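Quick one: structure tokens for this chain, please?
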Amino acid sequence: MGGPADIELRLHSIDQLFDRLDPSPFHAKALDRNADAYIQECAGEVGAHHALRIVIFGPTELARHVEAIRSAIHEHFALAHRQAERRHRYRRRIGRIALLAGFATLTVALFLRRLVTGFGGQWAEIFAEGLLILGWVALWRPIETIAFDSWESREQRRLLARLATVPVAFASVTPSNGGVDLVH
């Protein structure tokens, strides 16, 4: 098995990495949305069993900021992970409430269906079928939220947790000869 899968970022200045509209001090700035999306997309393509590393390619003067960049990347994704955890807990809570409401709707629909079928006739049969469909449709979104969205959310939270501790290396690019020196 080879080394880690590298996510390469090429920077001319440190400002490219951070959100310019964020008024926070340098060490607490949010990553630029494009950089965040790129890092997550690249990391998502690498299997969970494979090691990751972010390699920043840039001019030699950026080397003195490597620790600050590493810290900012880790803090950015740690915050994103905490926010994703909160959203997940909220969605699970809402999903459980919606599931109860869906079962209540199904119960009422089945009860009304039984009453309506007692009237007989074509319109009663159509209305009864509509009530049955309504009852099952009321369960669709809660089941989708609890069963399927949870899986996607879990994968996203794992990715963010992984990026919150990803190793970050710096590769100095010298403009004169295009050479690259890797600094960890």
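The mean pLDDT is 86.
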